[in-house]
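User: Is it possible to get a 3D structure for a protein together with its bound compound? The compound here is NDP. I've pasted both below.
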Amino acid sequence: VARNPGQPEFLQAVGEVIGSVWSYIEQHPQYAEHGLLDRLVEPERVIMFRVSWVDDHGEVQVNRGYRIQHNSAIGPYKGGIRFHPSVNLSILKFLGFEQTFKNSLTTLPMGGGKGGADFDPKGKSPGEVMRFCQAFISELFRHIGSDTDIPAGDIGVGRREVGYMAGMMKKLSNRSDCVFTGKGLSFGGSLIRPEATGYGTVYFAEEMLKKTGRSLQGMRVSVSGSGNVAQYAVEKAIQLGAKVVTVSDSSGTVVDEDGFSPEKLAILMEVKNHLYGRVNQYAERVGAKFVAGANPWHVPVEVALPCATQNELHGEDAKTLIKNGVICVAEGANMPSTIEAVEAFEHAGVLYAPGKASNAGGVATSGLEMTQNAMRLSWTREEVDARLLEIMQGIHRSCVEYGTDASGRVNYVNGANIAGFVKVADAMLAQGVI
Ligand code: NDP
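Assistant: Yes, that's possible. Here is the predicted structure of the complex:
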């Protein structure tokens, strides 16, 4: 705490992971040696930099950019770039820390990193977004590379922004190697990468339900957010026969008792991805109810998929969901549930999957994009989707292996943390004190 003042999100993430691996470490004391835990919570490198750019009115704007190179024990740093006004050191350190365990869980050789800037893409012209991305990379380019650190998208960074950043990177480095994942298909992107996080979250929820003899077929599902992860979570959930009754953004929630259809999802995608609009505009177009200022957790459902942002589902929200009969919560976002919410789910016996397990499909498919780039070929949609499903099932198995208690109940938080931890810790111990 003394070393990381003013970093509540980072301390929250560290507390959650260390708390859940602690009894495992007590049984395996080699992990308490060689300063392993002290090294694990300290990022290998933190880069903070000025990003200055000129807006459409000729005014100079200054933002702060970051890259957290958290841990490279099992492979090059890998993790997204976030553009959002809330971005700060604490949030990116928490995300880089979590990413390390998530990437380990995928079984692919990727270390953990995260980056971003306190830039708000909302209300910016396409030209301003491009100039910002170029200014951001004009500093970051010297710290990243296909064998050292490979960024991707996150909140506020989609295919358009990745394209601008990858383009500027190519220009500055005079190389065309794979330095970003989530690229456009015409220059090395992978099929299924846009879908992967949302699809993977739903695959994971289905695995949890299957283990208890149920499935998503016919279940009522709420989704929060309406961005990349949320959209494809909606798509896969309806493909598996669920009825999705909500989406949201920071202005409020759409409640649609008739449920989503592929046609409605196409309209949501048009409003969010092409018109850069708000969910109330979507609600108007499909005639659904919009509740301003509300989150989706008051709506009765059996399955909840938080896909917006960190700490968006509080203890009280969890209690409301439980009272209304929720049986399964799978996180598409990173750390959307507060510690109080997680405790409430676990206490009530709700199947609860933390983001580092259930949303790992995105980075796993980024890993598959890196493999395709290295081999200079592209796999088909079916091939990538099949590998994604296999990876999500593998993560589920790891959670069951490490998270099943004496009564046979699976604690997915412990399972994900311990499985992710063991691989990174073994690699760090093998590589000595560095
Ligand atoms: P997008 O920018 O595409 O969408 C984010 C969505 O969340 C928007 O609907 C946004 O609404 C909403 N949101 C953001 N901040 C808030 C807030 N403070 N309160 C309420 N709603 C908010 O991002 P992604 O879909 O890519 O990412 C969503 C989450 O998933 C993040 O936690 C991210 O770290 C995580 N994730 C993403 C992966 C990926 O592959 N993209 C991989 C793994 C995890 P608004 O427009 O109003 O801000």
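The mean pLDDT is 97. The chain has 15 helices and twelve strands.
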